[in-house]
Amino acid sequence: MSSLSLAVRDSNTMLRRNLLHARRYPSLTLNLLLTPIVLLLLFVYVFGDVMSAGMGGGGGADRSAYIAYVVPGILMMTIGGTVVGTAVSVSNDMTEGIIARFRTMAIHRGSVLIGHVVGSVLQCIASVVLVGAVAVAIGFRSTDATALEWLAALGLLALVALALTWIAVGMGMISPNAEAASNNALPLVVLPLISSAFVPVEAMPGWFQPIAEYQPFTPAIETLRGLLLGTEIGYNGWLAVAWCLALSALGYAWSKSTFNRDPK
Question: Cα separation of 200 and 222, whole Å?
Answer without folding.
Answer: 10
